[in-house]
């Protein structure tokens, strides 16, 4: 079945002073008279010292944190955390976990913390891992998961459950869930995976099943909207420093040395931008959101020549989706897609490296020595760092609390530094992108001293796009991502 938007109406609650709560579905919305149970956390010695541990039913988190005194209170999301009453008895829970899409640092940590959270906080003993992504549901491949099985997996990269792209068949998946008696489904994946999760929720709801469908957003590119950032992003930026440093050492050790580093970022240049700002060794950063051109005054070739004359070496960071507009027609002639529906992109790093070599060879202005580094799979395959490990723990425990409390059709995510429950449609409505008329991109341009490659006409077009993005009271872009300030 194809992936599309859910057919249920958004659950919107309003209050005084322009307060809007974009709420998430609950089992009680379509199953009447469900029994509730006392949350076992109240008797858990680990939480006996925590005051006000249970989240109040009316707690919510604002999407925009900067407002004027007379502006509406705006959109809010339900705050994550344990509730005093839960909708599952611990012994009746039969949970499953699935990972879909590409690899990302932290996947095993999320798996571990969901299993341990269910087991240690709620006494849930039956947890299955679905092997091989969505296909695993109807291929009947499962792995029993216990705290002992997952004890050390956070120290490894990748996912112990294996993953795949595509393979989504809503009817078969829900049939499998129903046949196995599964009543909590935890789905870890990016926007395409979350769209699939939304369809699974819709089918579960249509059948009237007491089954929670909950998502954990995963994308190394950080291109999921609403949430502050995705897990694995900090690790990716940190690991990218090693590649950039290697490129810098190679470039400065030889006459007119150029180091080109390709980083992840199919549609959004967040990793390239933050890795550039963090390293301080990058002279030019190219991302999908910022068009650039090669030839002529103000072009990339002119900038490279001037930089080499000035410093004797330079480092270029390019995101994998950058420069599509300047590819030769032959390179980008076929719009092939992978199993997830993502367009297969040519290797922009290799292409750009060859173009630079051809230009300077043709012009014979100077001899250059170019080294190209692509650390993509090295970055994707490593375990998460300390910061991401903590974040993965918060995401996993929050999604477990939400599922036990009967919330469904939601993704757990960080909004303005607080864990929240976000309806699927907000996570899948669009992709988060770097706003090149925003302050963060201006900070990068100031740091690298590179040209913006943005003419007056381009700036006007991008300004029009910017006007369609919500702003804070300061007039700063509210791009649904607190990293972009």
Automatic annotation (TrEMBL):
Residues 96-401 form the Phosphofructokinase domain. It catalyses: beta-D-fructose 6-phosphate + ATP = beta-D-fructose 1,6-bisphosphate + ADP + H(+). It comes from the Eukaryota. GO terms for biological process: fructose 6-phosphate metabolic process. Allosterically activated by AMP. The active site is at residue 221. Mg(2+) binds at residue 191. Pathway: Carbohydrate degradation; glycolysis; D-glyceraldehyde 3-phosphate and glycerone phosphate from D-glucose: step 3/4. Keywords: Allosteric enzyme, ATP-binding, Cytoplasm, Glycolysis, Kinase, Magnesium, Metal-binding, Nucleotide-binding, Transferase. Transmembrane segments: none annotated. It is an enzyme of class 2 (transferase). Its cofactor is Mg(2+). GO terms for cellular component: cytoplasm. It holds the Pfam family PFK. The record marks 192 as: Important for substrate specificity. The keyword Transferase applies. Its main location: cytoplasm. GO terms for molecular function: 6-phosphofructokinase activity; ATP binding; metal ion binding. Substrate binds at residues 219-221, 264-266, 320, 377-380. Homotetramer. HAMAP family: Phosphofructokinase_II_X. NCBIfam families: PRK06830.1 (NF005301). Belongs to the phosphofructokinase type A (PFKA) family. PPi-dependent PFK group II subfamily. Atypical ATP-dependent clade 'X' sub-subfamily. Catalyzes the phosphorylation of D-fructose 6-phosphate to fructose 1,6-bisphosphate by ATP, the first committing step of glycolysis. This is ATP-dependent 6-phosphofructokinase. The gene is LOC107432820.
């Amino acid at each position: 079945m194809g992936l599309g938007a859910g057919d249920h109406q958004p659950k919107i609650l309003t209050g005084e002073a322009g307060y809007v709560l974009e709420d998430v579905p609950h089992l009680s919305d379509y199953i009447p008279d469900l029994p509730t149970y006392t949350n076992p956390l109240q008797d858990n010695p680990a939480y006996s010292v925590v005051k006000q541990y249970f989240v109040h039913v009316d707690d919510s988190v604002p999407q925009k944190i900067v407002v004027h005194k007379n502006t509406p209170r705006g959109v809010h999301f339900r705050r994550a955390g344990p509730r005093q009453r839960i909708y599952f008895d611990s012994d009746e829970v039969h949970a499953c976990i699935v990972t879909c899409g590409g690899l990302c640092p932290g996947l095993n940590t999320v798996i571990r913390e969901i299993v341990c959270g269910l087991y240690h906080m709620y006494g849930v003993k039956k947890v299955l891992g679905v092997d091989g992504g969505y296909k695993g549901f109807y291929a009947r491949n499962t792995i029993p998961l216990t705290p002992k099985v997952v004890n050390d997996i956070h120290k490894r990269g990748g996912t112990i459950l294996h993953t795949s792209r595509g393979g989504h068949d809503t009817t078969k998946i829900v049939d499998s869930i129903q046949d196995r008696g599964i009543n909590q489904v935890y789905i870890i994946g990016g926007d395409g995976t979350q769209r699939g999760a939304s369809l699974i929720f819709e089918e579960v709801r249509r059948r009237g099943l007491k089954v929670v469908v909950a998502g954990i957003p995963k994308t190394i590119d950080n291109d999921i909207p609403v949430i502050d950032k995705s897990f694995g992003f900090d690790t990716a930026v940190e690991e990218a420093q090693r590649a950039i440093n290697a490129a810098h050492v190679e470039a400065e050790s030889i006459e007119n040395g150029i180091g080109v580093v390709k980083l992840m970022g199919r549609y959004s240049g967040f990793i390239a931008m933050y890795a550039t700002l963090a390293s301080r060794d990058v002279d030019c950063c190219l991302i999908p959101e910022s068009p650039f051109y090669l030839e002529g005054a103000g072009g990339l070739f002119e900038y490279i020549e001037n930089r080499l004359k000035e410093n004797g070496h330079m480092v270029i960071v390019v995101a994998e989706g950058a420069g599509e507009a300047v590819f030769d027609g032959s390179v980008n002639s076929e719009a092939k897609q992978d199993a997830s529906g993502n367009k297969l992109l040519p290797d922009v790093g290799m292409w750009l490296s060859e173009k630079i070599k051809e230009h300077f060879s043709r012009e014979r202005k100077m001899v250059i020595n170019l080294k190209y580094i692509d650390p993509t799979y090295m970055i994707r395959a490593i375990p998460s760092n300390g910061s991401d490990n903590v974040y993965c723990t918060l995401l996993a425990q929050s999604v477990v609390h939400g599922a036990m409390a009967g919330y469904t059709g939601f993704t757990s995510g960080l909004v303005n530094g607080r864990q929240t429950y976000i309806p699927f449609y907000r996570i899948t409505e669009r992709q988060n992108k770097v706003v090149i008329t925003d302050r963060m991109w201006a900070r990068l341009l100031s740091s690298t001293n590179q040209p913006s490659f943005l003419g007056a006409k381009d700036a006007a077009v991008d300004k029009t796009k910017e006007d369609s993005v919500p702003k804070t009271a300061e007039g700063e872009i509210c791009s649904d991502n607190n990293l972009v300030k």
